[in-house]
Structures are given as structure tokens and as C-alpha cells.
Batch of 3 targets.
Target 1
Amino acid sequence: MNPGHPPLAHSILDVIGSTPLVELGRSVSGRGLEGRLLVKLEYLSPGGSKKDRIALEIIREARASGNLRPGQTVVELTSATPAQAWRSYALHWGIPLLRSSRAVTPSSEFAR
């Protein structure tokens, strides 16, 4: 374990994907088992979920490929933790974000 402080992040985006990995050795040895039990503490991610990584990668890839251009609006149709991640990244990069809490359903024409 590093006795010093963690590196200073210059943006909230710098800490996404850097959630701690913890070994629960006593949970294994205390039961007379062998092996390792590792847990990734994704709840410590800024948005509280692994979905932070997904939203960040989608936006990064869209920006890098030119599919998301400056000033272009992103329409976000998820809810809860994914919505928090999208909102954070949109604010960070100045991307207009349109959130919809309505479920998108196929029209009767496509449902046949």
C-alpha cells in the first residue's frame, strides 16, 4: 500500500477508472479456502457506478472520431447513475445535453 497521498487529479475525469481494488484475504482464509477474493469498489467512482466509465468512453470516442462535433447536442435517454455521468461529462466539455425521462417505444407500425 502506498503510504503517501494519491496523485492530485486535475479534473473529475482523471479519477474515473481509478477506483480501488481490494483483496479480502480474511474472507477466504477464515473459511478455510484457498485463492484470492478481489473486489473493485466502483461505488467510489465520481458518479457512484461503473457506468461512469461507459459514458466517458462513449463521449471520448465520439469526439475523437468526429461523430460528436462542438456545439452538437447529445440526447440522453437513460436514468439514475448513467444520467449523472452523462450530465457531468456534458458540463465538463460544454456539450449541450437533452435529457429525456420518457421511455422510447416502437410505434404500432414497427410492433407488428
Target 2
Amino acid sequence: MLKRFAAATLLILLLAISLAVYLSTQKPSDDDFNLVLKYGVGAKNVLNTFTEKYTKDLIILPPVTTKLILTSQEKMQILQKIDEMNFFSFPSTFPLNPDVWVTPQIDYYFFVQNCSQTKEISWNSNSLIETDIENCLNQLVSYITGLIEQKPEYKALPTPQGGYL
């Protein structure tokens, strides 16, 4: 009886270790990673990979929304950049810089979900942000907007009319 119990315990332990090793080597799929990026004056430009939609601010005209899909490779490259910069450790908000006031104010918002981990970050052109974090966020926004602007769906959208003061 004791031998059977020991054998069963050993078998369960081996299965648990095997499962843990297997799960630790699995990379998240692009279905496990999604984001919402809002940017621009009033954060009116919106990429939402959950819904595969992009909304473009046309300033004096109503905003326009189109289907826009990032490829699995593009999403995994974004996730790699997020991991490299330690995005999930950044503060969620940043205080306003009392010495600076930029107009028009450019607003930014990220909501990132990777498996069960989520993070929201918002800031604007008047925020007081540590230089390293600011550089990382600016590079990430630039990278993602570069991906968006290369898409035929984006290029087919109308040009904004007017401007912000």
C-alpha cells in the first residue's frame, strides 16, 4: 500500500513538473495579446486590436472608422518591445509639468492585455515624465503609428481638414 502511494505521488509530481515546464516554454499567441492605443489631440485617433478597428480624427469632419488588422508578427513585435521596456512596471498616470504648457495638448492612452496581465497608461504633452520612460513610450507610439500608417486601409482614409490651435 505504501509503495502504491509513493508511486502515485511520484507520478503526480512528475506530471506537475512536466506541465510546468511545458507552460513556461509556451509563448503567448497573438490572440493572447491585444491593445488599445489612443493618441493625438483629444486622443481621437484610436487603434483597437480587440475589435480590429482604427478610428482617424478628421478634425473638423466627423472621425472615420475602418477595419484594420495587425498581423501576428506585428503584434508579437509590439509585445517584444513592450517586454523589453518593462512597460507593465510603468506608472499608470503622470503628473502635469507645472513649468510647461504645450497647445494643442497631445493626449495618449494605452490599454494592453497580455494573457491575464493588463496595464493602462495615460499621459499628455504636458505631463512630467522621467526621460527614460518618456523615450520608451514615444518610441512605442512611433513604432505602432508607423505600422498603422503603412496599411492600405489607413492610406485609403480621407485626409484631415483644418487644424488644432
Target 3
Amino acid sequence: MQAKTPEQSKTILTDVVLPGETNALNSLFGGELLARMDRAASISASRHCRQIVVTASVNHVAFTRSVPLGSVVTVEAKVSRAFKTSMEVFIDVWIEDRTSGEKLKANEGIYTFVAVDETGKPVTVPEVVPETELEKQRFEAALRRKQLSLVLAGKMKPNEATELKALFV
């Protein structure tokens, strides 16, 4: 199985925020944004492994900026790291100013997907080879995030989380 770069899984979804998707403050509902992020991340994970993928977890979402009615929203997703059957997908959300065209980062998220066959059984996925500095940073941090998640879920003993321990020793 040939390794792939994050760029090979890059998925960009661009859409406009419509009135039926907003709350009382005329901002995009958080759930609407999460759904868009999930779709982009799903396509990205599928592009990476060329398999059926299912969302395993939403590991992190940061709503740092509201997304106003009428905004052009761009959701960009890339696989940041692959493990045996799972992939971490990092998602950046941008809003575009209608008058200046300037893009501002509004949100980000990290989702985990598992590749499965037609029966739902997990299958192996290709490795990720990061190229840019940002891709390398996200790749390195992914193992720490995975270990933290496993420790918190009781699926890994804290003393086995070598990457996490290295932060404190």
C-alpha cells in the first residue's frame, strides 16, 4: 500500500450561509457547520484510503468566530495522520468577507475516521507522508492526541502513552 501526502486527500467545500441555517443572531448554527465539516472530512478520508469510511469521533472543534448570514464559508479538510485502520482529519473553516474578499479563519476541528469494507469490518489504510511544516506539526501532534484520547477512554494505561509522557519528562 503506497503512502500518500495530505495534499492528495485535500477536500474543499464552499457554500453560502442561508437564512434557514441560522440562529436568532443570524449566525450559522453550530450543528450546520459540524455537518459541513463532517462531509468534507469524510470525503478527505475516503480519498486517502479509497475505501468506505465512517466517523469514529469528533476529537476537537473550536468555534472561534461566528459565521454570519450570507457569508461564503469554505471548509478545507486533509488527512493529517493515518494509523492502522483509522485516519485523523484536520479541518480548517474560513469565512470570506463579501466586500474585500479577505478570508478569515473562523473554526477548526479534528475528526477521526475508520476505513471499512462492505461488511463494516475495519481495513488497513495507507500511511501519511507530510510535506509542509504545518502538515509535519499536525502529523507529530496526532499521535499525542490519539494517546490522550485512548487514556481518557480507558483503552490505554497512562504509563503506556509514551508520546504524552515525553511532554512531561
